[in-house]
Design goal:
By secondary structure, the protein is of the alpha+beta class. Helix content is 18%, strand content 32%. The chain contains 4 helices and 14 strands. α1 runs antiparallel to α2.
Length: 250
Amino acid sequence: MFHLTRHGWREMLIGSIVLIGVGIFLGWATNLWWIGLIVLPVLVWLFAFFRDPHRVVPTQPNVMVSPADGVVSDITQIPYHELLGGSCVRVGIFLSVFNVHLNRAPCDAKVLDLRYVKGRFINAMKHDDASSQNESNTIVLGQPDQPNPRPIAVVKQIVGLIARRIICDCQIDQDLQRGQRIGMIKFGSRTELYIPTWLQPRIKVQIGQKVRGASDIIAWIDPATGPDKIDADIAAPQQSYWPSESEVTT
């Protein structure tokens, strides 16, 4: 069954009225009713953009799933990330205007912090510039069911050249389940997943690979090592944690 997200009703209503009006005008102006049908592909795309497909979420323990649909654009080692308190690996996902634009929780977690930053609208394919300069919303995820949870992941929603609105459905202290919908970026964007080194992430995707939010595994992790490895990893990260050199951009 075809489902639509509630976040698109305004755009779908206004877009439908405008496109149908344009189609009627074109048919009247040309005296050829079928000319008005040229707006039909745009109308179909508009509704398809706000689709909300059902996804089968992997049940294996100790995995992180993709937070978005799109193409893996970069896999980057980060020596130090302020919100994670140590080194990490970043997986960037580019969302074109034809992808599902809902964002999903990569793992079971508690929302520790939300940080919205106004910024520019650089093309999301320019990885580092878009990540650091564009308007964004950062979701810090912590260990679930812990009295003093440590950060275990960061999901960053970043606008692109076309995208102009970020929606975040999370609240601080909210408990999330793997694959749960956490927001949306409208009309082309970038989503980043940061995983701390102490979780020993073994990246299972490659640059250029298409991924589906909630369904495709981004990384296997090993939480048994414990967060006490953070300080050691900052000084000397173990290369076995990272993907191969052919899969990494820096």
